[in-house]
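Researcher: Here's the sequence for the chain we discussed earlier.
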Amino acid sequence: MSNGARELIVKRLRRTILALDRRHVQDIDFIAVARHAQRKLESGKGTLVERYGFLQFIMTLARDECGRNYSAESNETAAIQGDMFTGVLQRRYPLPHKRGDVPVYRLLEHLTPEQVRWNAEQHRKVGHAHLRHAEALEDYADSMPDCEAS
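Model: Thanks. This is the structure I predict for it:
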């Protein structure tokens, strides 16, 4: 698939996520996003195998886009841009789930206090992991023999 086609699909996924947000859909997951976008993108003229393959591909991209928008690990959410906290909360956060489960992203105003606290803990875990990584890098640098850069 060409980069142009992939970009078209990603743009459609992003528009789909925004449309679902504007409609105040309480819960979304990457499967729902993929199916909405698929209906807009497909001509309906493919074989069953082609349509199934396309759905699998678009679901992979939809999972990435939902994670980019709402995951604690992302640096591209409304709340986190790069290494800066923007001062605003995200519109959606994932519901508590086990690793490997399909994450469902709920509108912030519909989360329970326990669900909000679970998300806060996920952000703390990511922050602590980054700090430990930085400390390990500093320890490594301190253990290196002094030598001039080549």
